[in-house]
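User: Batch of two.

Assistant: Item 1 of 2:
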Amino acid sequence: MRARVFVTLKPSVFDPQGRTIVDALHSLGYAGVQDVRQGKYFELEFSTTEVAETRALAAEVADK
C-alpha cells in the first residue's frame, strides 16, 4: 500500500523559494497570486495492506 506525504514549512517560517516563485508568476502576468509555499512530496510503499496501519506508519514516519 502507498502513502503520499507532503512536507511544507510552517506558516511562520519565511519561504524564499516560494517568494521567488510568486515574483516569477507576477512577472508572467499572474498578479492575483498572493503567496506560494514550496514543499516536498514523498511517496512511501508499505508492506501492509491495512489502511489504518498504513496511515499510522505514514504519520509516524512524517513526524520523525
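Item 2 of 2:
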Amino acid sequence: MIKKNKFSILISLVIIYLSLANAKTFESVGFFDVPYLDKFVHFGLYFLFMSVIILEHRNSFTNTRQIIIVALIPVFFGGIMELAQAGFTETRKADILDIMFNTAGIASAVCIWLFYEPYFKKIK
C-alpha cells in the first residue's frame, strides 16, 4: 500500500511540515510581497495533493462517486491540519479561508480529472 501511495504520502508529509512549522520561518523569505499569497499556496498544495492521489489511483476509479469519496480524504486532512495549527503551534492559527482554499484546490483537481478522464480512456 505504501509503495502505491508513495507520492501522496510524500506530499502529505510536506503539507504537515509546512502546516506546523514556525510562522517566522516563512516571514524571512520575503522576496514575494503578494497579498494573500498563503491562500494561493493552500490552493496549489491541495490541488497537487488531490492530483497525485487521482494519478496514483486513476485505473481504480469506475465512477464519479468514488472520486468524490476519495476527495474527502484530503478535505478532512486539511481540516485536521488547521486544527493542529491552532492546537499545537504558538505562531500559527486556524483559518476558515485556508480550509476553503484547500477545498477549492481539491475540487479543481477533481473537476479537471472528470473533464480529462474520457480522453484518458480513449488513449489507453
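The chain has a mean pLDDT of 87.
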